[in-house]
Amino acid sequence: MILPVRFRSNLTVQILTGVVVAFGALCCVVSCIGYYGFTEALEAQYESKAANTARTAATYITPGFLSSVDMMSTNWRMQYDLIRKEWQRLADTQGSTFIYLYNVSPPVYEHVSVLLSVMNSSANYKVFHSGIIVDLPEVYHSAFREVCEEGKSSAVVKVYRKEYSSDEYKSGDHITVVLPVRSSQGEVQAVLGVELQMKELQNVRSTYVRHVLLATAVLLLAALFVCGLSLDRHLLTPIQRVAREALRFARENTRPSAPLTQSIRSANEIGQLARTIDQMEIDIRDYIENLTRVTREKEQIEAELNVATQIQADMLPRKFPPFPDRREFEIYASMTPAREVGGDFYDFFFIDGDHLALVIADVSGKGVPAALFMVIAKTLIKTRAQMGGSPQEILADVNTQLCDGNEAGLFVTVWLGIFEISTGKMAAANAGHEYPAVRRAGGTWELVKTKNSPAVAVMDGMKFRGTEFELKPGDSLYLYTDGVAEATNADNELYGTDRMICALDRHMDEPVEELLVSMKREVDSFVGDAPQFDDITMMGLRYLG
Fold it and tell me: How far apart are CA 261 and CA 441, in angstroms?
């Protein structure tokens, strides 16, 4: 019968089944050892009894009985009758099946001559009469050889099946002890044997097996009962409580009405497991509460960052074209932060009707601190630029204001240019920023490399260098932050200004807005699946004259 899966998986059934199997195997081993030990002991008793009977029977035989010349004489017949009478009495009192005397002719033992033979009065076998030739089975040959040739005082033959070849003389399981009968000169003249039937052996062994099986069954039931009670009290019930509590906590995720250690007080492994479950529930609940709180705070921070992102985006010019009534130039800019908020910014605004200020900057650091510093820097630069002055003068004043109270040690790289629209002249100052790229009408893109000044807010009292160059109608200007040149792919390769110039040349005939979109696509294609490391900010200007 195949047990249901649920029943087979029950811990009680598995443990009790193991106990039954182990105890049953132990009982089988003990029974087998006891069975064979008992059999050997019983056989030893039979052997000892047969040997004693044989030695007693040998005392009635005199050397003259075997060496008598006339075996039909009156004297010999009297000795024969006397020995036969004593042997008969001995066989009946000792329970021997046969007592016999064989005349043997070494080294051939297949055929022996019967000199004298008596049988127990209660036995139901045919007695061997004097003078009969008996064919002995092979199991007797070695015993006769031991006493006749090897000089042993006795030999034992154990027969557990019907050994005789003649149906007339077949007998059951028996043990035979043979002794040599010697002359006065020490020569073996005959062999005396005592055969003892082992009819009681099977009965006693069967009784032994029944008793062992009965005792095994009783002990097994008692062991199952005791083990069942002990297992249920000390193992199964506590484990079931632990399992139910773990399942309840997994479903409800609430604190228990009472800890497991109130009902499981043992100091063993189950008690340790109960204490572990109690502590685990406390830890998980605390973790969930902390996680809920942190998640709520994170959602609040994300919401605030979204607002900050929107505020930062609103601070940058996003309406294009920004000056639809001005036909002298085209301008477009974009900023992609690496996080929700970034430190890059750009700006463009009119100082007066003929001067357009262009600003692109990159604050050190990332995230909210950089964004806050960016707001301050952008506001100061625009405010100061609208007051007039050269780019280097504007940056110098802004540097002084940013250094005041800059305990965080932030700084900003800035490229500031003031473009005179009527003449195409560009007055600029580069405070640690990337070199701008210029394309002359009909030509290719190239970097405008000038001597840079240190970044703004690095140190108070700094002086900044200025430079000038001229844009002619059809010329273009490309401004960018290091997020473009230092964009990194999965192989840790930098995009670099050489790739940037080549990409600009591939899209040289595109309008300014399309040019910046194409450049962003070029950078993204190079980076691939690698994460964006820095803010990417770009600005493009084409002078139409």
Answer: 86
Chain centroid, CA 297 distance in Å:
38
Q: Which two tokens stand for residue 359?
A: 């600003």
Q: What is the largest CA-CA distance in the chain?
A: 175
Under 8 Å between Cβ of 495 and 487: yes
Picking from 222, 221, 263, the residue whose alpha carbon sits closest to that of residue 244 is 263
CA-CA distance, 66 to 129, in Å (whole number)? Answer: 17
The single-letter code of the amino acid at 180 is P
Task: Give the Cα-Cα-Cα angle 499, 504, 509 (nearest 5 degrees).
Answer: 155
pLDDT number for residue 441: 93
Residue 199 phi, psi (nearest 5): -65, -35
> For the chain, what's the residue count?
545
Predicted pLDDT at 512: 96
**Where are any strands of DSSP class E within 232-293?**
none
- Would the pTM of this model clear 0.70, i.e. be above it? no
Could you read off the pLDDT of 117-130 as tens digits, one per residue? Answer: 998 888 877 777 88
Residue 173 has phi, psi (to 5 degrees) of: -60, 130
| Sequence letter at residue 39 | T
∠ CA 153-156-158, nearest 5°, is 175
Task: Indicate the DSSP class of residue 461.
Answer: T
Quick check: 367 and 339 in contact, CB under 8 A?
Answer: yes
Cα separation of 209 and 470, whole Å? Answer: 120
237: tokens are: 């019930």
* Beta-bridge mates of residue 349: 357
Environment class of residue 446 by beta-carbon count within 10 Å: exposed (0-12), middle (13-18) or buried (19+)? Answer: middle
Q: Select from 98, 92, 148 the least CA-distant residue to 125.
A: 98
* CA dist., res. 545 & res. 424, Å (int): 8
pLDDT per residue as tens digits for the range 486-519: 999 999 999 999 999 999 999 999 999 999 999 9
Q: How far is CA 293 from the centre of its chain?
A: 35
The three-class DSSP label of residue 362 is strand
Rounded Cα gap, residues 174 and 160, in angstroms: 7
473 cis-preceded (ω within 30 degrees of 0): no
- Strand locations in 83-237 (E): 98-105, 108-119, 133-135, 155-159, 174-182, 188-197
